[in-house]
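quick one
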Amino acid sequence: MRPEARIAAAIEVLDEIVGGAAAEKALTSWARRSRFAGSKDRAAVRDHVYHSIRNLSSFQSIAGQTSCGASGRSLMIGACVAQEIPLDTVFTGERHAPHPLTDEERAAITAPPSDDPDMPAWIFESLSNAMGHDVALQQARALSHRGPITLRTNLQKTTRPALMDRLTRAGVDLRENPLAEAALTLVQDRGGLTNLPEFQEGLFEMQDASSQAVVEALDLSRSDHILDFCAGGGGKTLALAARSGKVVTAHDIDAGRMKDLPQRAERAGAQVRIMRDRAHLKPAGFDIILIDAPCSGSGSWRRAPDAKWRLTRERLAELQAIQRDVLMQTVPLASAQGRICYATCSILAEENEVQKDWFLANFDGWAVHQEHHWTVTPDGDGFYLVQFMRENAFD
Ligand SMILES: C[S@@+](CC[C@H](N)C(=O)[O-])C[C@H]1O[C@@H](n2cnc3c(N)ncnc32)[C@H](O)[C@@H]1O
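structure w/ S-adenosylmethionine:
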């Protein structure tokens, strides 16, 4: 496909997304009906689409439109202006290119805004209240860029330098990521990593560096019984198992999410015990309980940018209620010295500090052992971790 045809395809997909379709679904259905598109075309259309959703408000404003009146065409006009792509070379109307700009469209174009947070106003206000306007704007702008692609070296099977050496010889351009000791981040974007023999041998998993850093922040050395209470696909379960060398119990309310975990654990050489039924988890039986809580995902909105435009106050309140429920459920499972480690991939105080304060106010005898924030940076996503411990268990 020519560059203009890829932009026309992005316009088509974006129209579906602003009409309410989920971004991944809209891209998949476009790819299905566009058999002529090769892998590079699909990647290029995807890049256009994700970049436009991340910057939806800015690009709409360049095209002289509001966020409410978003359309694929105005978004791509804004995207081209922002990237200094001459509009007349793209909007030509020839073959599969989008049709030329009308006089009205041309007259509506304005300069790119410098301080648009590109998120709903109520969310930006909440971020600003928690971290101050300038930091909030810096975080919002960080979310408008593409996120890094990072691998986690399986330290049970190899070392980071050894893996880096093998992958470099296989043509993968990587850098050591300072956020986590097992993290290697792609310098040059490329797909197909999970087809490499190194992946099949279990030498690495795909995992954001902040997710890895959360696991690295936990002291697993004196913890024999480790529970990943919201295991999902098991990314953190495997990291916990690799780091501790111990059996990790994995649970999730939606057991279906853990369906690939046995196979992933086998590939990694990790010892994972899956517990589908919460009633079978041993009371007072765990020294480390990781809660990788369901959340807005605001710290990783670079990867799922439509989520930031869809989050509502009501949904956030629902998530907070679920997070509190999960915290409550884990208290009876913690051993006398046990730690409850509550994490979110969110930068919203409502899901982080507010939940910490709620826990401390509602559970007597518990205190904060450690608290960490990871902001959205070129190295990793935004994450939060607070570790609670019984006051009488402090050394
Ligand atoms: C952020 S995801 C976990 C991601 C996973 N830890 C990983 O690293 O790949 C949150 C998970 O919490 C699960 N969850 C939601 N409510 C829960 C509950 N009450 N008890 C246990 N798990 C729950 C969801 O099904 C979802 O898989």
